[in-house]
Amino acid sequence: MSAFSEIKLIAGKDLRIEMRSRILLSQVLPFGAIVVLLFAFALDPDRGILARVAPGLFWITVLLAALLAIGRAFSIEQQHGARDGLRLAALDGSSVFIGKAIAIAAQLAILEAVLGLTVVVLYGVEVHGVVVLLATAAAATIGLAAAGTLYGVLAAGLRARETLLPLLLLPVLAPVMLGATRAFEDGLEGVPGDAWPWIALLTVFALLYTGVGMLAFGPLWEDT
Amino acid sequence: MPNVLQLREAVCLLGRFPALAGLDLDLDAGGVTLLSGPNGAGKTTLLRLLAGLVPLHSGTGSVLGFNLNTDRVSHRRRLALVGHDTFCYDDLTVRENLIFSAKASGHKAAMGESAMERLGLSHVAGVLHSKLSAGQRRRLALAAAFGRDPELLLLDEPHAGLDTEGREILDEILRETDAAGRTVIIASHELERTRSLANREFSIRGGRAYSVDQT
After folding, report:
1. B73, B74, B101: residue with CB nearest A85
2. Which of B9, B18, B71, B137 has its CA 20 to 30 A from that of A24?
3. Rounded Cα distance, A207 and A213, in Å
4. Which of B103, B120, B47, B56 is nearest to B79 (CA)?
5. What are the tens digits of pLDDT across the range B23-33?
6. Residues of A in contact with B152 (CB under 8 A)
7. Residue ranges per domain, chain A?
8. Angle A146-A133-A28 from CA coordinates, rounded to 5°
9. Smallest CA–CA separation between A163 and chain B, in Å?
10. Which residue of chain B comes nearest to A91, CA vs CA?
11. What's the CATH code, domain B3-214?
12. Ramachandran category for residue A87: left, alpha or beta (phi over 0 → left; psi -120 to 50 → alpha)
């Protein structure tokens, strides 16, 4: 089987399970919406503050909700020994990594679209650079999915994986948080052209973690 | 007849506990082997070792010509393991699970469909794994294994949870598998039933070989 077929098989399987279980729709999205709403309540006295800090609040919410999606991507492999079944298939580790990362990225893209619209409406944010926002979201999503898949498999074999995943992953995602927030600030109410260095940082992060993930995922998948 | 597997002084640790403590085993290709022994003897660990799912900590081993000390992945596509779990996904149907399993091991979807029919699961093809009874899950696990068309079939308590019809179907498939020259290893406590299928018996206790009989 070609690498492309293996990637398609894994991504298709994960997305089919997600569509069937509707965890994204019934748990992850409502969780994100509640966090966005709580920020609005907390900072309600001055809507100007909300608009100014909207990029940071948006990406914090995405990161928190992403933890749920990443945890879910690996918890399905723990049930009924499914991970052993997948290991017995002897698929290439990098194909499993890319397939799972694509499925996570697709879910994050939906999450970001819904939360983005919610933030624009609820926080009264003006959008100046749509291309910059889309480029930022694409690079940040790939970076989040790649790093999340790598640390997800690392945590999957540990006994306290639910609590350890955020501890391991959130510090690693600090550059994504910083770059995506700064780029969104420029794309929303600043000068969109100033965002490109931050998008370059996000792209480097995404490429780095995709490369490291393709190399390291296989051994981690086998031995953790 | 070539060796399908060979273990020398095989030690396999579960944490610090030696589940296999210096096991020697040679098995020629073909035939059905009953792997017997009391609870905790190391039967499940031995099957998982042969499948490459747990590492060999010391000693040497080879399965289907692949050296377990240096490569415990490459032989996996040529074998199938039915363990205590189904290796399936709750949110996929019986058909989806079997097609995924067949495709993932490099076969066509039709192999999964065919195994589903053979194990009598066609009437629950569209039912989610989470909604199946224990016996149906057992059949599904067996169908997933047969859908891989394995050269080496490793079965851990395969009759457990099956009804009379399921047991008869399984026995029939195992006889056909034997006749086709494939190798089957069955770990079981149902000794009488499994002995009627087996032509070799290998017993382990405390992670070591206890006896080997040709029947």
Report:
1. B101
2. B137
3. 10
4. B47
5. 898 898 899 99
6. none
7. 3-223
8. 55
9. 23
10. B104
11. 3.40.50.300
12. alpha
